[in-house]
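Quick one, T. Sequence first:
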Amino acid sequence: MGHILRIHDVLHGSRVNGPGVRTVILAQGCSLRCPGCFNPGALDPRGGSAFTVEALEAMVVEAAPDGVTFSGGEPTDQLEALVVLCRRLRKRGFSLVVFSGRTRAGIAGLPGGKELLSLIDVLVDGPYDASRPAVHGLRGSANQRIHLLSSRHRFEAFASRDVEVIIDGSGEIRLTGFPCTSLARAIRQVVGGR
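Structure tokens:
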């Protein structure tokens, strides 16, 4: 059997999680547990659903986005399978962006970390710090850094802080992007605290 990733959610057609139209893959599980996490439902490593790398690759190919953004949870908690998936997606020409609570140096020190960094185009790194909200750029808090790891993108592509509210066919509401605290709180109240 192939490599397995535990996934919290997969969003297709996002325009706020990196340049162009993107598939966003939210990893399930996070060992970092930053206080004030925007996505607390993705923290438990036993939650979510298990997908093979092949199934995730097929989902991305079918959606035909410009690129894929990995967030979570903490994607690097499942580093071996993440590297395999990124290797496959890179061969297909997709732009790859990873958001991680780990620093670039911290990722490089993990087994397989240097290979991950060689495969992706952009890393947004550093632990989320709720006391230092970011006001510019595609990052959650001001301490986080955007690293261009290839020549594929420019910093300007990561300058906006837009928000998407996605309502699927069953009426489920999902919020993605970088909302201000008051907007995120208001939407969570509307959807019953989810």
